[in-house]
Amino acid sequence: MESGRQSYISVTGIVLKSQPVGEYDRRLVLLTKEKGKISCFARGARRQGSILMSAGTFCFGTFRIYASRSSYVMVEAQVKNFFRTLAEDVEGALYGSYFLEVMDYVTRENNDETQLLILLYQSLRALEAKNLDNRLVRAVFEIKTVMLEGEFPMPDPGKGYSEGALYSLRHIGESRVSALYTFTVSDQILEELEKIAAAAMHASLNHKFVSLDILKVMTG
Predict the structure, then answer these.
(1) How do residues 158-199 score in pLDDT, each as one tens digit?
(2) Does pTM surpass 0.70?
(3) Of 2-16, 38-52, 71-85, 178-192, which range is least confident?
């Protein structure tokens, strides 16, 4: 078999996309610690009883793959977190889908995307937390994403942002990604952070995200 002549590697990451191919296969896009963003085929993943059935959107795990002529091929999936709470929460799933789409847009193959992978993982976990407002999670995610991309436009002091909002912004910038979601803010500061995040996303990425349009319609 073709796979028998290949060198297998293990990658750890999150599935950003899952699309059906043919009758039983899937095409997956993963954000990985070792290879950045990669595409791979999971042959037979939609066949009942396949060891790859668990490899779907949102799942975090370790995946065994090999390189074929045109793409990677997945042969094993060890899923460590399915983010099941998001699957049962429509609003959380909408926010999560937006986060996945952003990461799909900003990451590249063979880049060191470790910090963005950690940010995505922690952000999905934050969406599952009962004590955090999803709007705050989104604002923090957007701000930190742009900061990690190295293109964050600092807000204009003349716009009248409060000290609380500017302090929160500095906290986001200085915090380790793994310890990012450790605070809450007032409604006023949240609205200011949302404005800062929206301006930063527009200035740095200026991209239309389909899942964001759906999120806006569904959540008002």
Answers:
(1) 778 999 999 999 999 999 999 999 999 999 999 999 999 999
(2) yes
(3) 2-16
CA dist 94 and 199 (Å) reads 21
**Structural domain containing residue 193:** 84-219
Q: What are phi and psi of 40, to 5 degrees?
A: -150, 160
Q: Are residues 149 and 118 in the same domain?
A: yes
Q: Which has more pLDDT, 137 or 70?
A: 137
Nearest to 31 by CA among 94, 103, 99, 101: 103
Question: What is the maximum alpha-carbon separation in the chain?
Answer: 66
Q: Which of 28, 46, 81 is the last residue in one of the domains? A: 81
For the domain that residue 148 is a member of, what is the CATH number?
1.20.1440.120
Helices 134-148 and 114-128 sit at what angle, rounded to 10 degrees? 180
Look-up of token digits 């699957």: 87
**How many independent structural domains does the chain possess?**
2
Amino acid 95 reads Y
Q: Cα angle vertex 81, ends 194, 85, to 5°?
A: 55
**What is the residue-averaged pLDDT of the chain?**
92
